[in-house]
Amino acid sequence: MKIKFCGAARTVTGSQHLLEINGKKILLDCGMFQGKREESFKMNRKFLFEPEELHSVILSHAHIDHSGNLPTLSRKGFNGNVYSTAATRDLCSIMLQDSAYIQERDIEYVNKRRKKKGEIPFNPLYTIDNVRDIMRKFKSMPYGKKFYVEGFENKLAVTFHDAGHILGSSTILLDIYENGKNTKLGFTGDLGRFNLPILKDPEFMGDVDYLLSESTYGGRIHDKAEMMEKQLETVMNEAIARNGKIIVPAFSVGRTQEIVYALSKLFAKKTIPEIPIYVDSPLSVNTTEIFKVHMECFDEEASRYVSEGVNIFGLDNITYIKDAQESKKLNSLEEPCMIISASGMCEAGRILHHLKNNVSDEKNTILIIGFMAEHTLGRRLVEARNNPGTVIKIFGDEYTVNAKIRILNSFSAHADKNELLDYFDLFDKKKLKKVFLVHGEIDQQEILKESLKEHNISKVDIPVRGEYADI
Questions:
Q1: Which distant-in-sequence residues (6+ apart) come within 8 Å of 216 by Cβ?
Q2: What is the DSSP letter of 298?
Q3: For residue 359, what are the CA distances in angstroms to 389, 392, 448?
Q4: What is the DSSP letter of 256?
Q5: Cα–Cα distance between 342 and 325 in angstroms, integer?
């Protein structure tokens, strides 16, 4: 068996890992690259394999950096199955359509500018029709039930375990049967954290021979998840005292629901004023509806609230916005309010327009509650926190960052260094032959690699994009 690392190698986006098993090719995740526009534009259009040669895809979860390039596979000839949990399938059905729609709208906006400059127009990466085509290929499987990949009967079995990262997220355990031998390969996808609101805690996948592990925060320690409400309370009261707006770039899946859930508790305790809250993302609205039908993923607290009839995602002062004209009206608001909008890394969608209209006003606050990958606009905002007067570009125009930048890493849905090490400690070290660190920037991966040595795991590789590993 071979593994080819085709994405999320020394970076956190574009998760794609190609397995060659018994002469057939299986892809773990098919994420979209995000970052430098020109570089990402090219990488998302050119795979390091031929899509028509793929037998199937096994998908860890619905975040765009793990699922976002699936429609391109279909457009380029892939005709196999995509295996995921039911919640991941349902989320992908709306997220990929939203991705296609945003690409079309954003490219339409950009092409107007390119036309004025006499430049060649761009085409979207894929269309709604490509999304519909790939969704027909999904096969959903429950947590904890071993199943054989079609065409690999008695050769390749897969088990999904709850990763506790977002709704439907899974770690993936593969049982590979070759030459009378059973090799166990594990893939963490994105590993979640204990005590996050709404979702169950991560489950252990069981012992493996080889492990592909995310390393997003391999060298950092988060504030504890239990601190998120108090930290949010402080930021809210500080921003309201300045009579400003709070702009929150948030992933539509997971992070938006978590912050609304936290706000609802703060409002109930009356520790913050009931200012208007706007969730300005059609995807977030649709995602919240999917959350409501997948209570099998909820933790005990969230399940109890729902059973008691509490609407954990809705309050009188929270407005969910789908219509584009209603979204534009938010720019004329002058009173304190919070606007939660996608995309989470500020690379596309309505958040760009809200930043454009608010980032230069010193009364306002930009609240960062998620990871911002290298070379994204979100990362530049993070870096602007300690560099007043930083100039950023949005749709090609320059804006000075005068708004306050606040970062709450207690909201992170990724395991931090200690949480990753705790998870590694669950494995039988005598059985674990090698670990491959993926989905992380190299500085974080090097720290985690050294820490793993202290936990008696010395055979750790940090592959580069395009590299092969023989197992």
A1: 12, 190, 371, 414, 439, 440, 444
A2: B
A3: 11, 10, 35
A4: H
A5: 16
| Residue type for position 244 | G
DSSP letter at 414? S
Q: Which two tokens stand for residue 173?
A: 């355990």
Question: Average per-residue pLDDT in the chain?
Answer: 93
User: Check: CATH 3.20.20.60 for 2-220+413-470?
Assistant: no
Three-class SS state of 65: helix
E runs forming strands in 105-192: 138-140, 147-148, 156-162, 170-178, 181-187
Dihedral of CA 230/191/217/458: which sign?
A: positive
- Distance of CA 82 to CAs 5, 88, 184, Å? 19, 11, 20
Question: What is the pairing mode between strands 391-394 and 397-400?
Answer: antiparallel
Residue ranges of domains in the chain: 2-220+413-470, 225-411
The full length of the chain comes to 471
Rounded CA gap, 362 and 366, in Å? 10
Domain 225-411: CATH class, spelled out: alpha beta
pLDDT at res. 58: 98
Tell which residue, 232, 225, 287, 233, has the closest CA to residue 256: 287
Tens digit of each residue's pLDDT (9 = 90 or more) over 110-155:
788 888 888 988 888 999 999 999 999 999 999 999 999 999 989 9
Whether the CB-CB separation of 48 and 466 falls below 8 Å is answered with yes
Distances, alpha carbon 383 to alpha carbons 25, 378, 396, 399, in Å: 40, 9, 19, 15
β-pairing verdict for 434-438 and 210-214: parallel
Over residues 72-93, the pLDDT tens digits come to: 999 999 999 999 999 999 999 9
Beta bridge partners of 470: 2
Q: How close are the terminal C-alpha atoms of the chain, in Å? A: 5
Token reading at 140: 């959903």
